[in-house]
Design a protein that fits this description.
The chain is α+β, with helices and mostly antiparallel strands. It has a single domain, classed as Roll (Ribosomal Protein L31e, Chain: W). It is built from three helices and five strands, in the order βααβαβββ. A five-stranded mixed β-sheet has the order 2-4-3-1-5. The chain is extended and about 70 Å long. The termini are far apart. Pfam families: Ribosomal_L31e.
Length: 133
């Protein structure tokens, strides 16, 4: 009698789908989840940092810029009460200040927002930009 145990076979490696180099995504970001239990005196500033961190993670790009209108929307209710959720539009585009030797900042992300009546039933989607804009 032999006690040979067969090893289970490994699953085949499936790489993640990469986004195209220039793309725009629309997604809902729950700021309340990031801010609950945090000091009330710095919530709006922390919300801005959380939005930037989310954009870095989703778009895989280190250079992130916020639209001034989004910044106003977050700070509109004061430092204590940023909005609970926000519908973000994340646009990754070529960095105009990019130089050939600078591989890290080849792209940049511009974060905008969209006002929606309700967040129910909204999912992350790729935005098709029209040529007329």
């Amino acid at each position: 009698m032999s006690n040979i145990v067969e090893k289970p076979k490994r699953k085949a490696f499936v790489p993640k789908k990469k986004l195209p180099s220039e793309v725009a995504l629309e997604s809902t970001f729950n700021l309340h989840r990031e801010l609950v239990g945090k000091p009330i005196q710095r919530r709006a500033a922390r919300a801005v940092r959380a939005i930037k961190s989310h954009a870095r993670k989703v778009m895989n790009c280190s250079r992130v810029k916020l639209d001034p209108e989004l910044n106003k929307y977050v700070w509109n209710q004061g430092i204590h009460n940023p909005p609970k959720k926000v519908r973000l539009i994340l646009r990754r585009m070529a960095n105009p200040n990019h130089e050939d030797w600078d591989k890290v900042n080849k792209f940049q992300v511009i974060v905008g927002f969209k006002i929606v009546p309700t967040f129910k039933g909204l999912h992350t989607a790729v935005v098709q930009e029209s040529e007329s804009d």
